[in-house]
Write the C-alpha cells for this entry.
Amino acid sequence: MSGAPALLAHGVGGRQDLPITLSELVVAAALTLVVTFVALGLLWREPRLDRDAAGGRPVPDRLAGLVDAPAFRWTLRGLGLLAAAWFCVGLLGGPDTPDNPTAGALYVLLWVGLVPVSLLFGPVWRAVNPLRTVHLLVALAARRDPARGVRELPAGLGLWPAALTLFGFVWLELVAPDRATLPVITAWLAGYAVVMLGGAALFGAGWFDRADPFEVYSALVGRLAPIGRAADGVLVWRNPLDGIAGLRPRPGLVAVVIVLLGSTMFDSLSNAPAWLRFSQENGLPPAVTGSAGLVGVIGVVAVAYLVATGAAARVGRAGPPNAAAPAGAADRDAGSQSVPSDAESPSVPSELAHSIVPIAVGYVVAHYYSLLILEGQRTVALLSDPRDTGADWFGTAGWQPHTALVTPSGVANLQITVIIVGHLLGTLLAHDRALYLFPRARAVAGQLPLLALMVAYTVAGLLLLYAG
C-alpha cells in the first residue's frame, strides 16, 4: 500500500449540503442547549436516573438463560478466535496493496463498527476478545485461576492503562506514517498483544478491563445500550440513560473520555484546508505536526472540561458546608441526607465524566457514519479473498457498495442530529448528577459552567466537522 487508502478520508456531506447556513446551524444548536438547560431547571428538580444500577426490568428467563449459558459464552469466544485467525490471514499472508482487507477490518469494522454494536448489545468486545480468550485457555491449561496473576492490580490504577493504550490506537489511526500498510499495522498489533497478554499474566484477567482500549471503548458505549446488567448481575432491559448514569467514577475515567472526544475532534481538524496547508508548509515531518496537533486538541478539550467542572464544583458547593440537602433528598429521607463535602465525595470531574460519553458517541457517528457504510461494505467484500488470489470464500467478493444511505444531504442531516442529540443527552446527564452533588439552592447555578462547556463543545464540533 502506498500511503493511506481512501478509507482514511472520512465524511461525505459538507457545509454545502446543510439545510441552513453553518452560522445559523451553530446559533440554533447553542440556543437548543440553552433552552434545554432552562427547561431542565424548571421541570427536572430532583435526581431521577438510576445512579446505583439497581433498577431495570429483567429480561425473559429464556433469554437470560441463553446469554448466561456457558455454551453460548464459549461460542462467542470461538467466533472471536476465528475472526482473529481470518484477520491474520490477510495481515500475515496477504499482499500489501489497497485490496488487502486488513486496514479496513481494523479501522472500520472493529473501531467504528464497535459503536453501533455496543449501543445495541452492550460491551460485546469483552465477550469475543481473542486475547482474553487466549489468556483464559492458557490459564485453564495450566490449571490456574485466570482472574489471578503474579501480582495484584494496584488499587489506584483504574483506567489509566486504557487511556494510554487508547491514545496509542488513535495516534496509529490518525497520525502514524503509512498507517494503512501491513508492516505498521503488524508492529502496532504485536505491541498491543504483548502488553495485553503480558499484563494479564502479571495481574490476571482484570487487566483487560483496565487496559484493553477496545474493551474499555465498547464498555463505555455499551452503557448506553437498552440491555445490561443490574448491580446484582441480573440481565435487564433498562433506560439507556440509567445505564450510563451507573458508570462509577474511577481513576483514569476522565482521561479515557477526553481522549475519545479529543481524538475525534482532531480527526475533523486534520481534514480542514487550513490544517492541511499548515501541515504541508511548516517544514516539519507530518508525524511531528500530527502528533503535536493530536496532543494539542486533546489538551484543549481536557483543559476546558477540567476548568468547567472545577468551576461547577466551586459554584455548586458555595456557601456554608452542608447548608442544604441535595435536590430531592427531602423526599427520600426527610432532609437528613446532606451534601457531601469536598473531602468526602468523589471529584466533580470524575462524577460528571459519564456526561461526555454520549457527546463522544455523537461525534463518532457523525464523523464515521459514511465511512462505516461505504468502506465497511468494501471491506466485507475483500474479506472473501484476504490473500488476493481470486478466491471467494464467503461469496461476497463481487459486492458493490450500496450508496442509498449516504446521500450528501442525508449524511449532513444525520451529522447535525447526532451531534446535537449527544450534547442534549450530555446536558441532561450532567443536570441529573448536579442535583445529586449540589444543594438544591446551588444546583442550577453550579451547572452554568457545564452549560458553557456543552455549548463550546457543540460549536467547536460543528465548526470542525464542516471546516471544509
